[in-house]
Specification:
The protein is of the alpha+beta class and 184 residues long. The protein is built from 5 helices and 7 strands; from the N terminus they run αβααβββαβαββ. It starts with a helix and ends in a 7-residue tail after the last strand. It catalyses: N-terminal L-alanyl-[ribosomal protein bS18] + acetyl-CoA = N-terminal N(alpha)-acetyl-L-alanyl-[ribosomal protein bS18] + CoA + H(+).
Length: 184
């Protein structure tokens, strides 16, 4: 087939219709950012891999399964199908208890713990919780810094709460009033 001058013009300058392809992102922009979603039993193999890589005394898969079955708020943070972290809270009696919050080691110090914690706080607020409590090892400086940064205050110590390789470790008990705290 022979090209005509009008074909060459259209090839070089377009059809005369506005080109709006540049307005369409090449990918779904939401998939580029970490997004929270509910945890399911199908996620537990990936969750337990992160748990075991993160803690010397990790939760068992049975504990995670029990949390799901008990109806606790179990949330994941993922990006393009890759699990980055998870958090679990129980809510009742006007209080929320943060039971576990963990970010994959290769994605720490990127603000993902903050993002997931803010999501969990929002869920607790929607369920009429006035405060959130948690326990953390005194040696977990990164977690303590995050919790203090968002407004958690130390309210007590639980002696010999955590198992440790050299004997039990204490737990620092922290509390956060949910009436005037941070958001995403």
């Amino acid at each position: 087939m022979m090209r005509t001058p009008s074909d060459d013009f259209e090839y070089a300058f377009g059809s005369g219709k506005p080109n709006t392809n540049y307005l369409k992102p090449p990918v779904d922009m939401h998939s580029l950012f970490p997004v929270p979603r509910p945890m399911t039993e199908d996620d537990l193999d990936m969750v337990i891999d992160i748990e075991r890589a993160s803690y010397a005394f990790p939760w068992t898969i049975g504990i995670f399964r029990d949390c799901l079955r008990a109806g606790y708020c179990c949330q994941l943070l993922e990006q393009q199908g890759c699990l980055l972290g998870y958090g679990i809270i129980s809510i009742g009696g006007g209080e929320a208890q943060l039971l576990n919050l963990c970010i994959r080691e290769d994605h720490r110090n990127l603000g993902l713990g903050y993002r997931l914690l803010a999501h969990l706080v929002d869920i607790a607020r929607k369920h009429d919780a006035d405060s959130m409590f948690l326990e953390v090892r005194p040696s977990n400086h990164a977690a303590l810094n995050l919790y203090r940064h968002v407004g958690f205050n130390e309210v007590g110590i639980r002696p010999a709460y955590y198992p440790g390789k050299d004997g039990p470790d204490d737990a620092v008990i922290l509390a956060l009033a949910l009436d005037n705290t941070f958001s995403k």
